[in-house]
Design goal:
globular, alpha/beta
Length: about 220
């Protein structure tokens, strides 16, 4: 009897501990909320949202001085994470445009993630955005060819193709294809646009993105 009680007590503690674990990126989202308490961003900003390629673009405003940019990229998020926190990182800001970079981690974190699954997740996120504001322009930055994830390129390229096709049938949207712009003329990937991890970009890489994104930003 005593042994059974100990087992039950152990299981209760495990369940309680698990119940107290916050969801992924909870701290990042709370940090955004604290920033907003101090100073709520303007409603006419262009919202950049998604994963670490935006998270690490700390000086993104400097690249687009004629636009007001609000960066809400967080951690190494997936599309599922952005969907989970959409009511915190998208809908409160009433942005005049939403620019998304996300989906690369969806493929990288699970071998079972297909290009169709990435598309389906993007469609869910797109619906959330448009249900909240049917008129807001939405731009999607294509998944990039990270050298450290070269084995995943076929799935990423197919995800890009599917999302591009999907957005072609939607009004006020743009598919910003950065993929080919990150290769040399001989077809090799530009190694000098990435930092040491061969995943995230340096300033040279972001300048490539700047040139690709700028023409699609609303005035």
């Amino acid at each position: 009897m005593k042994k059974l009680q100990l087992i039950l007590a152990f299981l209760f503690c495990c369940c309680t501990t698990n119940a107290q674990q916050p969801p992924p990126f909870y701290d990042d989202i709370q940090a955004f909320k604290e920033q907003d308490k101090d100073s709520m961003p303007p409603k006419d900003a262009i919202l950049f949202v998604g994963s670490s390629s935006f998270t690490m673009w700390k000086d993104v405003q400097d690249y687009f001085p004629k636009h007001t940019i609000l960066n809400r990229g967080f951690g190494g998020s997936t599309l599922q994470d952005v969907i989970r926190y959409a009511n915190a990182v998208i809908t409160p800001y009433h942005a005049k445009q939403v620019v998304i970079y996300c989906g690369e981690n969806d493929v990288a974190y699970s071998d079972e993630t297909t290009a169709q699954m990435v598309l389906d997740r993007f469609k869910s996120l797109f619906k959330i955005i448009r249900d909240d504001n049917p008129a807001v322009p939405v731009a999607f930055v294509s998944l990039k060819p990270s050298p450290s994830r070269q084995h995943l390129w076929p799935v990423m390229k197919e995800a890009n193709r599917l999302i591009k096709k999907y957005l072609a049938g939607k009004r006020k949207t743009a598919f910003i294809d950065v993929w080919p712009k990150m290769f040399n003329k001989d077809g090799t990937i530009m190694k000098d646009i990435f930092i040491e991890d061969n995943l995230h970009m340096n300033a040279k890489g972001y300048r490539i993105w700047q040139k690709a994104i700028l023409p699609h930003l609303v005035k």
